[in-house]
Amino acid sequence: MPGPVPNREADLARPRERKGSDVQPVTKGVLREVKIPNADRDWHPIARRLWDSLKSSGQADFYQNSDWAFAYSLCEDLSFYKKSGKRSGQMLQTIYSAFERLLVAEGDRRRVRIELHEPEPEEQSAAVLAIADYKKELGLAE
């Protein structure tokens, strides 16, 4: 999606209000089980590092098998590019543009209104806190 990177939702003065004509129906499908292929051992180290980072990045929560196949193909192309002695700026730009479709960079995600946030800190459940209070009242707490 071309254009400037939008602000994060939290940075906006008020949430976006959608006008009636802006609301588009969403066609929904069922997520399938995902099997992430292993990286090719012969890839250039940069392509392998990018592949490994994709597996541990938050946007991978949205990836399906076709996305992983596309990412694999792009890493194969990136590896070929990095290993070749004759490099083309146009080829590199094409590879980078394709990675935008996988929402690899934060700006790419924000353009399609996807934000990754820090995980919420785990709080103790009410039952655990009640047991701790009960032990304290009985004088059993440490």
UniProtKB/TrEMBL annotation:
Pfam families noted in UniProt: Terminase_7
Compositionally biased residues, Basic and acidic residues: 8-21
InterPro entries: Terminase_7 (IPR057972)
Region (Disordered): 1-28
Taxonomic superkingdom: Bacteria
Name of the featured protein: Terminase small subunit
Organism placement in taxonomy: Bacteria, Bacillati, Actinomycetota, Actinomycetes, Kitasatosporales
